[in-house]
Amino acid sequence: MGEFELLARVRERLPPPHGRVRVGSGDDAAVTVPGGATATSVDALVEGVHFSRDGTGLGQAGSKALAAALSDLAAMGAEPGEAYVVLTVPPGLDEDACLEAVDGMVAMAESTGTTLAGGDVTRGPVLSFAVTVVGHASTPERFVRRRGARPGDALVLTGEIGAAAAGLLLPGLDVPALAAPTAAALRRRQLEPVPRLAAGRALAGAGATAMIDVSDGLGADAGHLAAASEVGLRIDAEALPLAEGVAELAAALDRDPLRLAVSGGEDYELLAALPPRGLDLVGLGEAAGVGMTRIGEVVAGAGVEIRLPGGRKLEPAGFDHLG
Amino acid sequence: MGEFELLARVRERLPPPHGRVRVGSGDDAAVTVPGGATATSVDALVEGVHFSRDGTGLGQAGSKALAAALSDLAAMGAEPGEAYVVLTVPPGLDEDACLEAVDGMVAMAESTGTTLAGGDVTRGPVLSFAVTVVGHASTPERFVRRRGARPGDALVLTGEIGAAAAGLLLPGLDVPALAAPTAAALRRRQLEPVPRLAAGRALAGAGATAMIDVSDGLGADAGHLAAASEVGLRIDAEALPLAEGVAELAAALDRDPLRLAVSGGEDYELLAALPPRGLDLVGLGEAAGVGMTRIGEVVAGAGVEIRLPGGRKLEPAGFDHLG
Q1: pTM of this prediction?
Q2: Distance, in angstroms, between B121 CA and closest chain A CA?
Q3: Which residue numbers in chain B have pLDDT < 70?
Q4: Which fold has domain B3-142?
Q5: Contact by Cβ (8 Å): A147, B107
């Protein structure tokens, strides 16, 4: 299998480029006309580090690689635009398997309105994806950064947390309290995350002062937002929206479900700070197609405090994956 | 070594972002204000495929990874803008070694006016770089594509070819005919390529109708330009600018120097088609700081013909590196 032949077969599978893309894959570079300002982020998914081919389908790996990168654009409130991918192909992975991974990316691209505008294929020891995504806005000020949260702002979390961590722990466990469909849903949240692009734009439109995706765990990413904004965050542990089945799984492992949920990564939900006045989370959630929960507030000071009933505090487990 | 700590140390080494970049590394995404239209390309450099740590310094590897990506922007006639890098770190490579690779990239970025605007660090089995570069122009039409060459156009090549291939073959060889400084220059062309950004812009400004970088070898890349433009290319083998020392090395290996030069990749020179009327290659070359040679012409038809004296034809060796 040669580089040129595989790239040609990949190109055949790509949908036609969208409006901003004037030249798609196949020239020395892709040509686009951006929408005033761009937000660009990169992410990598490496076999043996972020996934195993035993547990993850190739299409799922491709889809997740793109979803993880797009989640950063969601956290900026960006309109998704283009994606560029370096696909590293290990010995023994045949062309059809490569195309299965590409098809997973294509499906995620189509469902999010992203154009796969360019890429490269290289040999390497393990399957990996390095993805660059570009999102758009009319002006740079439209993007929501990690800095900008102000004391008094409400803290809002999209969706539910803990599912991806629970889905990672599930394989091989026997948890009778967990119904099969619930267990399957937890696995899907781990293997097939969906970037919260509509929610990100809705929150940006509602005046979010700061935003981040909680890909490294709510505890860690709340800390990043607090540090960048030079504020403190006070989170009400009882308000946290735990995904269905997380409590049962945590019980089976004799672990605290809340601690599991705030420490585990890969939920790809968004944490935003917004002025509380007139905040309509029900309306925002309906517009974005995902629940939104007020989980706390921004305060003067520094750091993240996750409060339990009775004045106790929840300490997230350390989370620092090189990757 | 954790991801966050290493990224923090990387960020300390990055020069401040340039004009177009409003938010550099450290948020969910970098924010830029592009110049009307963008050209975006990706490239990868993988240990064991494209380089070995035995033969290549870490700084050289970092510099070459960025240079190879920027060469694609040169071939579009783009103004270099931003670069985004996924650095994969193998077990046993310590933080200082990672930073040496980063320093190589920083030096290449500085010398070309590129901003390292974002990146990611991940673990993986071998050292690798996946680089996305973004270049700018006022309108999408300003970029020069592979298609567009017209019969009657002159074919122009920047610089000299064969040096990178010769530099790859050199280690371990004893070539008495090759002076030490010449041999060292050949090695540098292999290990420390320089993207022809100024030349690309000069050729675009002079009305280039089509352009490509000859990273896969002049023979192969001329074929790509011919196919994209739906024309034939006629190249005069005797006009080809061979780098100093290529003839001596080829003689020592009993190989044809011209065939070596047109088949070997990684020269990162530019091949452009331009209307011949009023073409001032001396002036263009002086403006761009690199020699420019007229090596042939565009003709009706298809394919690439490299003509030798006496009507014979030179067939490039096959070149298809998956990488």
Answers
A1: 0.94
A2: 6
A3: 1-2, 318-323
A4: 60s Ribosomal Protein L30; Chain: A; (3.30.1330)
A5: no
